[in-house]
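Hi, here's the filled form for the chain we discussed.

Project: internal
Contact: R.S.
Residues: 506
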Amino acid sequence: MSTVPSSTEGSAPDALPGRRRAGLRTTLVALLVVTVAVVCLALGLLTHASLSNQLDAELDAQLQRAADRAVGREQLQDAGPTEAPDPHGPPSGEGPDSGEFELTARGERGGGSGGTLDSAVWRDQDGEVRELPAADLRELEGVMAEAERAGAAPVSLSLGTYRVVVRPVDQGAVVVTGLPTDSLRSTLLRLDLTLLAAGAAALAVTGIGGSLIIRRTLRPLEGVADLASDVARTPLGSGTVSIDGRVPVEHSTPGTEVGDVGRALNLLLDNVEEAIEVRQRSEDGMRRFIADASHELRTPLTAIRGYTEMLRLTEDLGERGQQSVDRLEVQSARMTSLVEDLLLLTRLDDRAPQVQDEVDLGEIALEAVMDARAAAQDHPVDVRVPDEPVVVLGDPRQLSQVVANLLSNARKHTPEGTEIAVKLRSQEGRAELTVLDAGPGIDPALVPEVFSRFTRADRARSGAEGTTGLGLSIVRAIAEAHHGTIDLSSSPGRTVFTVSLPLAGG
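And the returned structure, exactly as it came back:
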């Protein structure tokens, strides 16, 4: 038993949040790649720092050995011939004795200013001893104080970046020894590039391999989700429903996450199917009871109406007796109408074969309006139908009842003088029949239940005539039996029922 959809009903399964969340597979791959990236970054930083410290220590050791040799040469030179060395020549005759690009300079300690250098030479890659340019000499003098204080200091020369140390010789003389650091930095740069390339390759392998592995691992879970989606799309509201799909045994064995989910879904589907079977048996029993009771009631009701007519014709009744007979006749007619409505609903619920005649809805609408005008002259009824026939396939008696019930509903639940309009049109292969009234409208709280059985709108729309509450449910059942729909739109001063049916041959 369905109700009129409200603004929120029926939309929850398809509703999407403002920002769609990433899927589990994407999230897992992203987390895996991020984890590998963090590990690669940590390993790279650790390797870079370790190798840098190692190379710096080796360079300092080489520099100290070179400085010791330079000091030793200077002391030997001082103990040898007394001729003063050329102030513009090498400080120790041959100059640096080992290593390409090794630098040696000689000068005087100058107190807080660091000192001055007389000359400086370096050995090129061919073993030739060359004099250092004057600009580089000034750079060396600028770092002498720092080198003495810290034990070693970096300096940028035209030859490149050097690391230098200052050693005293005697009587204020000092020797400055330096070794290039460019090869060290080049080694570290090659290491960084290698680590970067290896990290990128590791991330690519992790992303591709992880995606394939996670996709394969989650494939059973995707099957479970597909099964759940198929069941969610299955109409379970009425009728006999069989849920045949189940998660395979290999994916529903407890012990793994997918197995636990699959087993839980299978148990849920079993419970749902059992509940549907119980509901269906209950509905079938109720329908049989209503059908049997209605059939049984038709005979006594017919007898009551016959005896009532016989009393009216054969007995001399007083005024009170005549009123009682009239009321008895009205109530028996109302009971007979209720029984007939219940029988019709039972047949429609059982999906009994329908008559499939070609019916002109325009003709039915005109006849129903003529009957409504004759039955309720206090409600003006306007009708608008196309000049050409609007033909549908169906049972003419049931389709006539649709229009009659809608007009009766508008007449019974609106005050006297309320205008009612019936409009018929055809568009896009469907016929649309609209019944509109200018009454006070339907209480929004009642709208979702208005097509349910035994729903009375007296509390929402004033009317003096009692109803059984089956009229609109019959309209909906007939419309659905003819592959159509009925919609309701209500606001104060405008209530519209719209019946949509497929056109014949559409």
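Let me know if anything looks off before we file it.
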